[in-house]
Write a structure and sequence with these properties.
4 copies of one chain form a homotetramer. Chain A is of the alpha/beta class. Chain A has helices at residues 20-30, 61-72, 181-197, 209-212, 216-224, 235-251, 253-257, 266-278, 281-286, 294-300, 324-334, 347-354, 371-378, 391-403, and strands at 5-13, 34-41, 50-58, 85-87, 105-110, 113-116, 125-129, 132-136, 146-148, 154-157, 175-176, 201-206, 230-234, 305-308, 338-344, 362-367, 384-388. In chain A, the strands form 4 sheets. A 7-stranded parallel beta sheet of chain A has the order 11-17-16-15-12-13-14, with helices on both faces. The first copy, chain A, has a 4-stranded antiparallel beta sheet with strand order 4-9-7-8, with no helix packed on it. In chain A, helix 5 packs parallel to helix 10 (294-300), helix 5 packs parallel to helix 14 (391-403) and helix 12 (347-354) packs parallel to helix 13. Chain A binds chain C through residues 170-171, 174, 176-184, 209, 212-214, 255-259, 368, 388-390, 392-393, and chain C through 170-171, 174, 176-184, 209, 212-214, 255-259, 368, 388-390, 392-393.
Chain lengths: 407, 407, 407, 407
Amino acid sequence: MAEMVRETLTLEGHLIDSDILRRVFDRVVEEGGEFEVQEFRVGRTNDEPSYTRIEVRARDEEGLDHILEALRYLGATSQVADCRFAPAEQDGILPDDFYSTTNFDTSVRIDGRWVTAADQKMDSALVLREGVPHCVKQRQVRQGEKVALRGPGIRVRPLERSRDYAVFGFMSNDVSAEVNKAIVIRAAAREMKRVRAAGERIVVVPGPAVVHSGGAPALAGLVRDRWVDVILTGNAFAVHDLEKAIVGTSLGVCQTSGRSVEGGSRNHLYAINAVNRLGGVRQAVEAGLVKSGVMYEAVRHGTPFVLAGSIRDDGPLNDVVTDTVVAQKAYLEALRGAGCCLMLASALHSIAIGNLLPARVRTICVDMLESVPVKLGNRGTMQAIGLVTDVGYFLERLAVELQTPLP
Amino acid sequence: MAEMVRETLTLEGHLIDSDILRRVFDRVVEEGGEFEVQEFRVGRTNDEPSYTRIEVRARDEEGLDHILEALRYLGATSQVADCRFAPAEQDGILPDDFYSTTNFDTSVRIDGRWVTAADQKMDSALVLREGVPHCVKQRQVRQGEKVALRGPGIRVRPLERSRDYAVFGFMSNDVSAEVNKAIVIRAAAREMKRVRAAGERIVVVPGPAVVHSGGAPALAGLVRDRWVDVILTGNAFAVHDLEKAIVGTSLGVCQTSGRSVEGGSRNHLYAINAVNRLGGVRQAVEAGLVKSGVMYEAVRHGTPFVLAGSIRDDGPLNDVVTDTVVAQKAYLEALRGAGCCLMLASALHSIAIGNLLPARVRTICVDMLESVPVKLGNRGTMQAIGLVTDVGYFLERLAVELQTPLP
Amino acid sequence: MAEMVRETLTLEGHLIDSDILRRVFDRVVEEGGEFEVQEFRVGRTNDEPSYTRIEVRARDEEGLDHILEALRYLGATSQVADCRFAPAEQDGILPDDFYSTTNFDTSVRIDGRWVTAADQKMDSALVLREGVPHCVKQRQVRQGEKVALRGPGIRVRPLERSRDYAVFGFMSNDVSAEVNKAIVIRAAAREMKRVRAAGERIVVVPGPAVVHSGGAPALAGLVRDRWVDVILTGNAFAVHDLEKAIVGTSLGVCQTSGRSVEGGSRNHLYAINAVNRLGGVRQAVEAGLVKSGVMYEAVRHGTPFVLAGSIRDDGPLNDVVTDTVVAQKAYLEALRGAGCCLMLASALHSIAIGNLLPARVRTICVDMLESVPVKLGNRGTMQAIGLVTDVGYFLERLAVELQTPLP
Amino acid sequence: MAEMVRETLTLEGHLIDSDILRRVFDRVVEEGGEFEVQEFRVGRTNDEPSYTRIEVRARDEEGLDHILEALRYLGATSQVADCRFAPAEQDGILPDDFYSTTNFDTSVRIDGRWVTAADQKMDSALVLREGVPHCVKQRQVRQGEKVALRGPGIRVRPLERSRDYAVFGFMSNDVSAEVNKAIVIRAAAREMKRVRAAGERIVVVPGPAVVHSGGAPALAGLVRDRWVDVILTGNAFAVHDLEKAIVGTSLGVCQTSGRSVEGGSRNHLYAINAVNRLGGVRQAVEAGLVKSGVMYEAVRHGTPFVLAGSIRDDGPLNDVVTDTVVAQKAYLEALRGAGCCLMLASALHSIAIGNLLPARVRTICVDMLESVPVKLGNRGTMQAIGLVTDVGYFLERLAVELQTPLP
């Protein structure tokens, strides 16, 4: 024991009800270390922060470094020192020792001052631009830019559990089909109203199942009633929605039976062809080809949308951003100011957007499968509430709840 | 009844055991029509084709057209007439009346002769190039090219059920977790040997879960033993595989717990950074950075791979084709000569590749979820056998079976 | 080939659109035999039956017997001969060569006359009682009763696909989350109205998830409006429903969060205790303890219910039939006259009831998981339409549709 | 605020790393109360317990009671007072104010002394028998027996997270298909060896899918090698296993195709009939009818098994305990001394056994569906580790791991 290396850390915040302290203890033990709590002041009430000073011990320097790095992701601070930086070697190539961000708010110590990082999102480098650290995706870093290195001088503020248990906080991290769906949907509606009142934006990420499941009219209604500030999706959702609008009842078969009938997918291509001939979605609405649906309402009300390309696309529509790196940038722009995000039956786009959102954005992930919100959580979008239900049901009930005034 | 419009059709082939005749009857009735079988000669043995002549009746011309179009997708031929063509209006814009292909072998009647279409795949236009109809994805059609129109002169040959019940045919269209997996895996191995003997190619489409689930060493072994002719996947699978190879045991945590631990995803970015710094996957193997795994074996043995970009990518690797339209073309090229396709726990890429394969390619889709092979079937990849199991299990057993000589 | 054994069979009915002929061909080939179609007359229109005479060949007598037995389950008849019978050896013990029933209507040839079996259900013996063959579950057969043996003299009439494509027939055997749920629910409502008009009975089989998911008020409404003729379920559904009625808003926590909170399951036991103290469900309603919910409406309107015991029961309620053999008999009695069956999110009871229903009863199986209707089909309840959605959604929409008069 | 009612509580134990303190704070706030931490001594190292004294405030007495009851389930103690008791009104009828147990170890204060409850399991009454409180299922309580009432004098000791992170503790409460299965299976094998060394018993709960999936030979091997001390299941698993043993290769079809083929379920009934004719499973093994499989090995090695009846049973076998209340008692007896429990693809029996086990029994739940372990956790069996994989894979790898000596 005598030969162990050790370091003293401090943590401050809602250490217990944000579950920080437990995870700190866990990580120390998991990494083969030991700890001793030297001081602990618990927040006496549910508004007061707690404070602790902990000595962490490990067998060698390398082990201690591992532990310290993990604990820094939980908000621990050790020696008070400035953050170190090194230049990006080439465009898109970081120094090996780069710090990789989480989606929690992060501060960087520069010249003795803690500066909050801009554009918070996970799995990014912290790049110094005009004196301010920015979260920048690897590929967007330019040669020579100063990139923060892991080690001292970086501090994260893990998400606090919501104090407002009546809204979203009450079931975070739980995923189950066994809840009273109506209650969760009511909470989502309340959250949307709060976000709207706060002047933040509501992002909707619909998958093609929204159309399959019969939820498109409800979603179109939400766009019409201005409950949607931006739509982020791919080619498939847009085409399904347009196809329904253009081929109307003669689409029939597929909407009736849910089966891929002989020749049925021709309608899909027909819709793409007709829209692309006019130039794109906006032109198709303006020309009167498209007279209903989610995309129609989006164009009519000026709701911005970004369609990201994917390898399985038919067509695609001219509106689709086929380069995925460019599309990711467009998503990022569109997400500015987001206060709330509805992920609707689209595993691909939900995970993509989870990668781009700060954890503080209230997020609900609606899917028929428990595995989608579970995956989302596994990939770090811990804030997403999983609601395992039919997306059509969700949208219809949500529309009703949004019309109900708050008590 | 007197005022009904009518037309006489003929069909030839394995009308009963390929389930064609039943679907013909179904479609006539579903579309509100009536039929009268005027002649029927059943194949007397299981090698002889059947033949039938049917009169179809509908209330009006439009209804009859609908029925005829559907039946043509099932192989019905009516008036003997040449196929009609019209020029593509612009690059990527088809005449409204274009014929949309299935993944079944298709013939086009030109100047009184039936010509087999090249590059058979679903949801394509039939474009006349040097006198031969080619299946061409909408966006790849050039202005002025002659595009086949729906109507007479196009004939498909729906997939016949395999006569070789010992191999794949025995459970096509069935999807269930309730099968003896060992037996299905044995059949897959037999099929791979048959394909190999026939000089056709084996395509593997692995998702990141192959690495998560512990199946990567088995897949690397298959590549090493030359059981894999081409790997089609995305950034995520490749990065997971490389990360495991590069960060080795210090990746540790994630491979131990399966959780996205604090700071754990840094390893992901680190691997991308290290590989991209050297130029890409091949260079990383040649430089000795990567010394094991699927990508390593692929480089070492010259197994081609295509990595298609997606909106949720970290990085991505320099090898990734970020433009999805370009990536689709690269997939198409890589699929030439395919005789067998293993789709391994990747919904996105499986559906993408189903869109590009002729139905005659023997396909097995391994996933933990019944919904993935169900979706694949819904989208027209009817030939895919769904095996609901752990992909790691599949790969380990498959490797054993491939070493077992046939009896 | 010369030394092959052979036999000639005839089949009559909707051989093609009921998919019989294809399965006949399949089975012959799967079992290693060969066939030759000696005569085939196809039904010329969609109302006319077809007829065929087929010679089947196998390598030896045993192989031929296998094939013939399989084909008999598909309705094939060979030599015209009476059915053979042998006495049950003991109570519940059948002669080894017993015939095992399907859920398709079955006739038995006795003294040269075809007699329709009574109480048709799968996996039963055919026992002669007062000259009529009855489908009797193994354990209910009494010593010395005459039991039909497999071989000639037994004929089944496989289910014909519904000609009424607007109702249930259109998607039988298909299971997918990717359908427009509203359309399927509308069809279910139409079917319930048809059944009601025909004087048949509507059976509902609810699982506890009906209460969890918030669907209980809608189901209670259906009982109140007399759309439910019998409720077959277990202890759990009834207790959840009663608990909600008795503990009301103080149940609170669980209905709010969907989690099993500390001490929360006490309410479950409290409800059981309170109901059992009064004697049972009926008494609890009469005493005014229970004033709402599905069980309340059932008691008030005299809707019969059977609660079958299971190994995971809390309590159970005094009303529960704890002996599963006795409960199965009670279910059987309650199912007489059934024309339609709604299986609502209960895998256990759905499979149990599938075992007891003739295939002609229109059945819909609503579940969040594709695997439940898939299992149901695997176990022979082929007639069940799988609807993959939230049961709460199903019930709310169904209630609306049932109030909508038919056009 | 002045008019709030208040009470002071103390808690002791691993309050932070067992996640107790966070849940205490949560529950106070969720129930509308407030708290003030008056004293807190954190365990300085990972072996020392923590201690806290908290004042809880609520708006009224009823609210305070709610909070106190919830906190008692988390181990909080308030006034030091003896537990109150009241007599059971009738057989199976408890006083309304009964205390309902959890599966955590519980102590009851009697005459100033804390006495540990016997037969710990959830959802039971605490009945005083010979001076010791016993956990007794509601229905087993006899009239006049003294039943503990909720309120002071009852203390639970919530499960501590395992300190031995190399074994089971590392992923408790996590459910995901996205783990390296091999690592989890290795941990399960280690746990079985530990349990064996400690002289505790290993309980296996197999569902019929063990046979379907091809895992039966591996499980039979475990029984043969004495890794299984008791088998708790139902009729279906036993019949599937026996059917495979008896009908051998002629079962064929079903084992080959996984489909319910025409007439295929006759083999199921045949096996039941043959076994019951001889008297039961033991007799069928002794008579040489059954020569392989799990049940065969169990009989040969004297491994006890209990088969509980269910409403969906065919037959059932004579060995089946058809009365579910009696079967539950038999399960309980069989579970004495359990140290480890493997739940293998059987939702029904897994939940049943979770109801009967103390939380300290290490439990792993293997299923293809995330929803099964999620449900198990929702119902209070929090200790169960969910492993989402193919049960056949699990058993084969487990057998290999158990043969590997510990390093």
